[in-house]
Amino acid sequence: MHPYTTDMYEGMLAETIMLPGNNGEIINAYYARPLGPGLFPGVVLIHHMPGWDELYREFTRKFAHHGYLAISPNIYFRFGHGSPDDMSAKVRGSGGVPDVSVVGDIDASARYLKSSPLSNRKVGVFGTCSGGRQAFLVACRTKSFDAAVNCWGGNVVQPKEKLTPAQPVAPIDYTKDLSCPLLGLFGEEDKNPTPESVHQLEEELKKYGKNYEFHTYPGAGHGFFYYTGVGYRPEAAVDGWKKMFTFFEKYLGTPGRGR
Amino acid sequence: MCTGIVETVEVSGSGKGPHGWFKLEQVNVSYDHPSNAPVDQALNIDFVNPKEGPSARVAVELSPESARNLVKAILNALSLKQQ
The complex's ipTM? Predict the structure, then answer.
């Protein structure tokens, strides 16, 4: 991990940008990068079900602070615009965001990062909640990523009766196509994913000889990184972030020295 | 979407949102992560009019017990009307 010392200059650029997403359709994204020549590894952040919100902007800047090109695309862009919670409600009431557009938008975001002259051409994907499920899905459906982090993604294991037009295939059924190392962070008290469904995914990963690393935290449930909610578990969150940065450094290279 | 539990029903009536009263057309009832209620999952009810945009919404996020009590209260009120 790149050590921060108090005598360092640090700067970052963080702003909303437009980029071509799934099928070349223009979407918006929040992009944060360290100042400096790089080269920097990249991370695509997939926002959670509650929306493309302030928390995900903070997460995006956190990755930039740690020396990554970080981009968080608005995967709800096609549903229109409003406050993050209104948009989340609209998407929920519309049957959810289609997996196909998520895969396309996230894949396009990886291409965007790799096209930067500041990029070391290594890109990871990170998501929490529904974004954790989608991070696993994208890592299976594309070959664009060098590492993937699934934080408490529910519905990776999806029984047939829970499949929908927007989510027609359970991500676990794509496990054999997983194209990069996977880190999973889960809470032992989570109801979705339950420890049983995490175990089921683990068995599938073993079956296909995939490179993965799972950690399940006792006393934690869903969303234990979210310091604004009742599920926040500081010790698990601190350890989870540490494990994530170690994992990304292993597979994406040393974070840049832009600060 | 984490639980994916959503029920949708067409309704007629009015709701008061951040910009005043608007015509209601739909109610989405979900059991999923709330935006504000201090619980992991809640019974969320969104009274909406999709034609007027995402902000045409009256939202409540209830504990399951509160939601059941609300259902009883609604049914009681309707049954009293019929007496």
Answer: 0.87
